[in-house]
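BUG: 3D viewer hangs when loading the predicted structure for this chain

Environment: internal workstation, default settings.
Expected: structure renders.
Actual: progress bar stalls at 90%.

Input used:
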Amino acid sequence: MREELAKKTIAELSNLIKSGEISPVEVTKSVIERTDKYDKLINSYISRNDQQALEVAKQAEKEIHEGVYKGSLHGIPLALKDIFYFENENVTMGSKIHKDFVPEYDATVVTKLKNAGAVFTGKLNMHEYAYGGTTNNEHFGACHNPWNLDRIPGGSSGGSGAAIAADLTIATLGTDTAGSIRIPAAACGTVGLKPTHGLVSKYGVFPLSWSLDHVGPLTKTVEDAAIMLENIVGYDENDATSVKVPMVKYTEYLTGNIRGKIIAIEEDFFFHNIDSGVESLVRKSIKLLEEMGAKIEIVKMPSLKYSEYAEFMTFMAESAAIHKQNLLNRPQDFGKEIKFSLQLANTASATDYIQAQQIRKLMAEDFAQVYKKADVLIAPTLPMVLPNIGEETVNINGIENGLTDSSIRLTAPVDLVGLPSISVPCGFNEGMPVSFQIMGPAFKEQEILNMAFAYEKTNPMNGRKPDLDRQLVK
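Structure tokens produced before the viewer hung:
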């Protein structure tokens, strides 16, 4: 029984914990034992807090027994991407330069999760400084995709996507600058939600790009994503980008009723140069939503053709500023890949950056026009199945394409305009998960969550999970 607990969702476990049928200690032990057994294959953790986690779980058990139940996350084991500050704990950002860094305060989202009674089992592997999409970390080792250990799990939150898929944590948080929540979610067959810019505080989260960074959940189900989001939203005066908006109980919007909802489809950009197997699954998924009562609206978004330029110039310029001193004083301590990327980033000019911001305004106008006609916009999350570890290109319909450009091409536009997007799995291609993303208007997370929830009820994955025991024997 205990072994199975790690495989359950927040929603399932919270009901059992609240009723007293199981204890937070049992759940935490289940996650720890499963991580002991399988993470040697996956390398999803950078560091673990087993003993501390058990102590917090015991405290949660005591509180719940005494009638102090804090909500759905009380006693739930979580592990976070190693980019979120924990007071008096080592936080590395997946780097050598910060390998001994110990923050003096918690990230705002960490404080919120602690107040909700969550149990932290450790910190998850990531691409160095979140600057890449493979999680081939030169300092802590490559993270492997649980569905096929030869494949990358995506990035930069690769450890988060892999740990959720392998049931090595019940839920997690990642960061998304060009797709770093949704890409690993898609690669690993999990749910990944990038909220509206400003909805979730970034205070105490090491930056990659100030104007593009977002914080959001990776989970096993859409309902769990809604639960996590409810626990981390809120205005924070410590974050200059934080926005005051009314609080929403997202789980109350998960009805599955999408009759009359209008789905926008943009063909020229979002369905251009897509692997045929991926495209087939995504279009089949859209057809299912249409059969549930949604309507399709074909739209044009001409500014999207400039989005890759705008994305690269923005995060190159901002990341160059963030890492300027370390690149000057400690260049040898960066991994080879990020050192090269940062040197390239320093070539971005003020003109490039200003032009990129003008493109972002044009894109915001195009998205605004779409949402005058439609409730959501749907597209593939990734245009292809991600490659093996160490490969730099991907094959899309017989043509070799650059891995980085291909990985972020479809996810980056909503980072540029700060709008919400959720990635949900929709089947398998070449034995690997495929996903599509549902994008919505600002602060309308409830719309995209309910659309995703409706689709998830069709059981597109047929209950399939990575066969880690078979891979353990190899």
